[in-house]
Amino acid sequence: MFEKLGIVTNIWAEEVENGARFDELMVEFGANGFKDMEVREGDYLRNSEFGELVQQVEAAMSEYTDAEFKAICDAVWSGQDHQTKHPTLFEEVTSFAEKASGLTLSYAMSHPWLSSPNNRETDTQQIISAKKLAYLLCPARPRLRLVDLDSEGDIDESAAVANLKHYDRLLPDYPMIFAVENARQTATLTLKLAVAGSVKLTYDETNTYRADGTTVNSPDDFWNAVEMTDLTSVHFKQKTETGVLSEVCDGFVDFRAIVERLKTQNYTGDLLLENTPTAHSLQDALRSREYLLNC
Description:
CATH class: Alpha Beta
Radius of gyration: 19 Å
Number of helices: 12
CATH architecture: Alpha-Beta Barrel
Distance between the termini: 10 Å
Strand content: 5-15%
Shape: globular
Number of strands: 10
CATH topology: TIM Barrel
């Protein structure tokens, strides 16, 4: 199962902030067998050379219809000739796509989907832009994941479900897996809202653990409620009383129990590693994969 382990790119944050190139890390990890990569939004990404490219693409989006932008994305990844208003920009995008050949890239960002937006139009445009970026990263299997790190306390469940249904309907001609992740809220509540909103769930069991090792919801409660068809991805990182670790090893999370659940229920989604960033993320990832393989 863990032979196909992938990664979330925020594990590169320290290296990127110290000058490492995003695309070179991508190629290096791909060469070491980490083929699934979730491109996680964040300051580290925006400050990288790839982040600058992403921002240029975002600025150019408004000059193309939805259909035109989709056609450009398809052409970039299929190696077809394409006409654009920004030839130099999309030559850079094509070069990046060539380096990412053989990889499956998805896109993830923080977004307060659990709360009613202050400005519906601005909120809608943010999701449209994110969906287009997700499609640009992998037209063959585009996926956008949202994680809400802002909404706390009592949640207006009807508003959250309405948000998900609205987001899911945007850009209907862009086929896409749309997902949310459990973060500050319990995994069982996030699952309930995802199912009601007709979107998928990314599950991270580490997020259910408090600093003292107690849980905000029982993992058994989640696993007894979830269907494998509800899941698109499962994230792996370890936590102890010192916090989230830089590699997977023994700690609060029982990875063997998770593996058994996934294998017996025929899980088919991806598995992504999300360690705390260090200056040697590849070595951390390789040791983490070896540990998980032994599970």
